[in-house]
Amino acid sequence: MFLISIAMGRSQPVIWTLMFKTQERAEQSFKLLQDNMGEIALGDDFGQTINIDKANIGGMLFEDLDQSKNAHIERALHQARVQAEGQTMAESDHVLRAARARQGSAILTPGIPSNGMMR
C-alpha cells in the first residue's frame, strides 16, 4: 500500500490523504500532482476523489506503508535499546546506588503487617 499525504493551505494546513494499492499508480498520481499547475482532479484506489488548486498545496509526502511500518518498528526497537542501556548505566552509577541505599526499600508487601507476622 502507498499513501500520498497532501498539506492543503499554508498558515494552518489540513492534510488530505490518498491511498493506492500499487506503487506504479501511486507514483503516477504523485507525478501528476508535482508536474501540473492550476486545478488538479485525482482519485485514489479507495473511492476518494480530490479537486485541488496546486497553489494551495503546501507540501506532499509519498509513503510506502510497508517501509513505514518497518521504520516504526526499528524506531521502537531503538528506543527499547536506549532504555535498557540507560537502566544498565543507572544500576552501575555509584551516585544513584548510594542514593537508593540511603532511601531504603520503597516496596511494601501487601498483607504482611510491619511486625512481619502473618495474620
- Please tally the β strands and state the result: 5
Taken as a percent bin, the fraction of beta residues is 25-35%
Radius of gyration: 27 Å
Overall shape: elongated
Order of helices and strands: EEHEEEHH
Average pLDDT works out at: 88
Distance between the termini: 61 Å
Summarize the amount of helix as a percent range. 40-55%
- The overall number of domains is 2
Q: Main sheet, how many strands, which sense, barrel? A: 3 strands, antiparallel
Protein architecture, described:
It is elongated, with a radius of gyration of 27 Å. The chain has 119 residues and is of the alpha+beta class. The model has no long low-confidence stretch (mean pLDDT 88). It has two domains: 2-65, no CATH class; 68-102. A hairpin with a 5-residue loop joins strand 1 (2-8) and strand 2. It has helices at 23-35, 65-92, 94-103, and strands at residues 2-8, 14-20, 39-43, 49-53, 57-64. It has three helices and five strands. Strands 2-1-5 form a three-stranded antiparallel sheet. A two-stranded antiparallel ribbon has the order 3-4.
